[in-house]
Amino acid sequence: MDRTFVPQLGKITWIWGLILIIPAAFIHSEADKKFNRNKKKAETSRFFFAYLYDLLGNKVQG
Fold it and tell me: pTM of the predicted model, to two decimals?
């Protein structure tokens, strides 16, 4: 394996991690703001992101 490939892979992983985590954190904060007014929607959002994190975690771990 080429030595330059490993740091590039690390950069790509960090970039995709930021792209996925920042919008998810923003949507979570919005869901928390609207939790009292729209409880069902917030619960759906929390369930969806919990499922998404679980799916991504399983793919990363193998």
Answer: 0.29
DSSP characters over 19-58: HHHHHHHHHHHHHHHTTTT-HHHHHHHHHHHHHHHHHHHH
Rounded Cα distance, 26 and 19, in Å: 12
Give the CA angle between residues 22, 24, 25 to the nearest 5°. Answer: 65
Contact (Cβ atoms closer than 8 angstroms) between residue 46 and residue 31: yes
Joined together, the tokens standing for residue 50 give 């919990």
Mean of pLDDT over the chain: 68
